[in-house]
Amino acid sequence: MNMYFYGTMLDKTQKDEPAGRSIRQVYQADAVSALTPLSSDHWESFHTYRLEWMPGTEGYLAWFLDGKKLYDIPAFSIQGATGAQIPEEPSYLILNTAVSTTWGFPQACPEGCACDCFDCAKPECRCSLPVGLCEMLPASMLVDYVRVYQLEDDERHFLGCDNPRYPTRKFIQAHRWRYQRYGPPSLPPSLPSDDEDVPLLPILKGTGACTGEDDCGPGGACHARKKTCVCREGWTGPQ
User: In a 10 Å sphere around its CB, with 0-12 CB exposed, 13-18 middle and 19+ buried, how is residue 210 labelled?
Assistant: First the structure.
């Protein structure tokens, strides 16, 4: 995880966290990261990446590549170093191909280069970028599958997105303008009619179009008459 793109905005002059940052606001980084070198094979064939996330004082974070543990950190280390904890709130996954100008570059700024711009479209910026980076863009990533597992008999693994200890739905409903794509952040706007402006969209359980069983994946079956997917026990999503 890249600490430069994750954290909490703080502003002592305002009670509520604003939708946009101002010059008076600071950025509190709150992330754990480690680097793993990849070989050319990682760009030519599929590999399995795994993250184990166990909240609580006895919890931990652990990263794996093709079944081999790369790095782990126990909860007490985070608590002791920063006073923070492994979040128990509902979270989401981001899979991206972000390229940062301050993180992950394999070399220092070359001698004689200002390194004040990082734009492949501008010739004057090329010296500040790793050799071959611009030639490989635009980059793409092919994801075969994403699977999320939770422990059913462990109270630390609450099943769902609205943990009673952290009432996510109630908070979003009370501060819906913070989660809308458009509209002024100062006052709640009138209820929008466009789905783009609705902060809470329904989680579909089935209803995805299908012509056969293969269209619904391992967690669903295709309804012969309606031609829509029906979820099996413990599964959700349109297909």
Answer: buried
- Of the candidates 17, 42, 37, 15, which has an alpha carbon nearest to the alpha carbon of residue 27? 17
SS3 state of residue 188: coil
Residue 162, both tokens:
């609205």
Tokens representing 122 are 């501008």
Neighbours of 68 (CB within 10 A): 9
The encoded tokens of residue 124 equal 């004057």
Identify the pLDDT of residue 80.
84
SS3 sequence of 128-140:
HCCCCCHHHCCCC
Closest residue by Cα to residue 211 from 180, 179, 239: 239
| pLDDT value of position 59 | 92
Q: Which residues contact 19 (CB under 8 A, 6 or more apart)?
A: 177, 178, 185
State the maximum Cα–Cα separation within the chain, in Å, rounded to a whole number: 70
pTM higher than 0.70: no
pLDDT over threshold 80, residue 17: no
Both tokens assigned to 57: 């004082």
Strands 49-54, 26-29: pairing kind: unpaired
Provide CB contacts within 8 A for 152, sequence distance 6+.
159
pLDDT at 78: 84
Q: Which of 69-86 are b and which e, b meaning 16 or more Cβ less than 10 Å from the residue's Cβ?
A: eeeebbbeebeeeeeeeb
DSSP letters spanning 160-215: SS--TTS-HHHHHHHTGGGG-SSS-SSSPPPPPSSGGG-S-----BS--B-SSGGG
Instruction: Tell me which DSSP letter residue 222 carries.
Output: E
Q: How many helices and strands in the chain, by DSSP H and E?
A: 2, 7
